[in-house]
Amino acid sequence: MKTTLNIAQIVLSIIIIGLILLTTKEGWSGSNLAAPVEKRGLEKILFFLTIFFIIVFVILSLMQLYFFGH
Fold first, then answer.
1. Sign (positive/negative) of CA torsion 40, 45, 46, 50?
2. What is the pTM of this model?
3. Taking the domains of the chain in order of start, what are their residue ranges?
4. Where are the alpha helices (DSSP H) in the chain?
5. What local confidence, expressed as pLDDT, does residue 38 receive?
6. Pick from 23, 45, 49: which is nearest to 36 by CA?
7. Contact in structure between 47 and 55 (CB atoms under 8 Å)
8. Does residue 31 have a pLDDT over 60?
9. How far apart are the C-alpha atoms of 64 and 10, rounded to whole Å?
């Protein structure tokens, strides 16, 4: 089970890195320091997927700590 959790965490971390790289492609609007534009469409979906996978990653980390941390 420990190996399964480790593999799941590795896969999730790769997915999270990819999603973060995809969502930060737009960045701030222009070179000014104004607030970012509201997320729409695919960018919004990627943002919520990133949050979801981060929450799953934290849950897996807590499970590993609970089951195997002494």
1. positive
2. 0.76
3. 2-25+39-68
4. 2-23, 42-68
5. 74
6. 23
7. no
8. no
9. 13
Polymer length of the chain: 70
The angle, 0 to 180 degrees and rounded to 10, between the axes of the packed helices 2-23 and 42-68 is 160
CA atoms within 13 A on the CB side of 12: 19
Torsional class of 37: left (φ above 0), alpha (ψ -120 to 50), beta (otherwise): beta
Instruction: Characterize 12-44 residue by residue with b for buried, 16 or more Cβ atoms within 10 angstroms of its Cβ, and e for exposed.
Output: beebbeebeeebeeeeeeeeeeeeeeeeeeeee
| Structure token pair of residue 53 | 């996978």
Q: Which of 39, 40, 41, 47 lies closest to 21 in space, CA to CA?
A: 47
Task: Quote the tokens at residue 19.
Answer: 């999603």
Per-residue pLDDT at 16 exceeds 60: yes
